[in-house]
């Protein structure tokens, strides 16, 4: 019995040494087969259920992104068209404003020219009217003075001569001669004064 125990121990030790002699880097064929079966099942399940869900999600996201990009491009095109239209309207408004300013400037210049012309015409008319009125008043004053000077001259001449000069024709001639002499004296005095002024 004593011999049996050491023999078992020896055999058990030999069995353990045999098990330890296996290489840990080389897997057992059963484990390798089991791993391949599990991998195949997982691959099938992922391909059957997970991949289609991912593909559907990716397709939906792609569609949504493409739709968003198309909508953004459409909105951008609309915005560009609106901007171009607004810029055109702004340019047209600027041209219209410039045209209106130019027309207003031309009309203002025309109105000023017309007003100047009217003012010049009115001034000329007033001047002519004033000259005519002055001339009429002068003629009236000359006539009045002639009558008064004539009456005074006739009275004075009658006193000097000692006879009455009541004859109208004679008194008119005397008055005319007297006034002509006065005018000649005035014109001679005016000519000599202008001559002195020139010297």
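Sequence proposed for the structure above (199 residues):
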């Amino acid at each position: 019995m004593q011999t049996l125990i050491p023999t078992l121990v020896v055999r058990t030790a030999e069995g353990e040494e045999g098990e330890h002699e296996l290489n840990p880097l080389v897997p057992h064929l059963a484990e390798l087969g089991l791993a391949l079966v599990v991998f195949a099942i997982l691959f099938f399940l992922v391909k059957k259920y997970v991949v289609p869900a991912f593909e559907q999600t990716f397709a939906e996201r792609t569609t949504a992104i493409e739709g968003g990009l198309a909508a953004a491009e459409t909105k951008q095109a609309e915005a560009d068209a609106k901007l171009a239209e607004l810029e055109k309207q702004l340019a047209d408004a600027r041209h219209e404003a410039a045209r209106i300013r130019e027309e207003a400037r031309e009309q203002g210049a025309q109105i000023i020219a017309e007003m100047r012309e009217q003012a010049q015409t009115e001034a000329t008319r007033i001047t002519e009217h004033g000259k005519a009125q002055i001339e009429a008043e002068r003629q009236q004053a000359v006539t009045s003075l002639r009558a008064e000077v004539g009456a005074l001259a006739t009275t004075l001449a009658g006193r000097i001569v000692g006879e009455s000069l009541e004859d109208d024709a004679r008194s008119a001639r005397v008055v005319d001669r007297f006034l002509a002499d006065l005018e000649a004296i005035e014109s001679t005095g005016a000519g000599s004064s202008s001559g002195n002024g020139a010297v």
